[in-house]
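Below is how a single chain appears once it has passed through the pipeline. First comes the sequence as given, then the structure the pipeline wrote out for it. We keep one example in the README because the format questions we get most often are answered faster by looking than by reading.
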Amino acid sequence: MKEITLGNRKVGEGNPAFIIAEMSANHAGSLNYAKEIIHAAKESGADCVKIQTYTPDTLTIDCHNSYFQIEKGTWKGENLYGLYGKAYTPWEWQAELKEEAEKAGIAFFSTPFDKSAVDFLENMGVEFYKIASFEMVDIPLLEYTASKGKPMIVSTGMGTVEEIEDVKRAVYGQGNEQLILLKCSSVYPANPAEMNLKTILDMKERFDVPVGLSDHSLGSMSAVTAVAMGASVIEKHFCISREIENPDASFSMTPKEFQNMVGDIRMTEAAMGKVAYGPTEQEESSIVFRRSLFAVKDIKAGECFSEENIRSIRPGYGIKPKHYYEILGKKAAQDIKRGEPLNFEMIMK
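Resulting structure:
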């Protein structure tokens, strides 16, 4: 499986999960909030902060017939054009936000939603791109973004196997094999019971690229579980406070929650370790507390070993218990006191 470089980090099998703090609409229309989010994400352990590059007009049209009304979910009752107007990140901020991220020492990238956004981000010098789940079917956008030769992270919410194959074909077809796929449940917030995280394992094998999770569920359980299943990237929405009203606040993590998630992920990675058998260095001192064969009564030289005078007990200074039945009925080669561990020199040949 390929290893992809995002900023100064290697992403893929054997590397720590790359953790993205998604700003999205959590700036709530304030440049100062946006900058605060960048610094808080860095302090909370994120490897990267992500924004979105679109305007209402690049996503949809200003139309209010029934096709453009949201009827269910978090944004029920909203008109698409109006919602995107509330949520978008002004383009005139974005170079300044990238500069702020550089000052903070955190990687920065964006999700373009059309060709003009890709061109804009290219001029800014963004080093890699994200394509949202709802845009994964926009093959011309995928091809145009891939043609820039930079790493691409593509969310696959709602994607069928055939649609994800189309994504890989579109990106690789531009001579760009720097592709990362994210399992995603495109519901806000997502129900963990419907996230089907086992799909991550299948995606890794089926598509032979690094796979991660774009997680819209509440809390960190799904993200930590995904890492335990081999996810190379975790993306979570990030806010300063859910009290700051905006379209994404209800399913975003606060800095403390994000920090706890990162800590849990790093502990999970450490606990997963590598394939290893036998005692670890830390366990060496515990071996002595295993069972072994001891004399539990005084035994005279020439006396037979029996179930009454030898037993498998703790600690582990004697012969291993697997030799118990070999020794029963044999004779002692010397006097053995109660409480002495057996060794093979005590047994007559």
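The first helix runs from residue 31 to 43.

See the next section for the split statistics.
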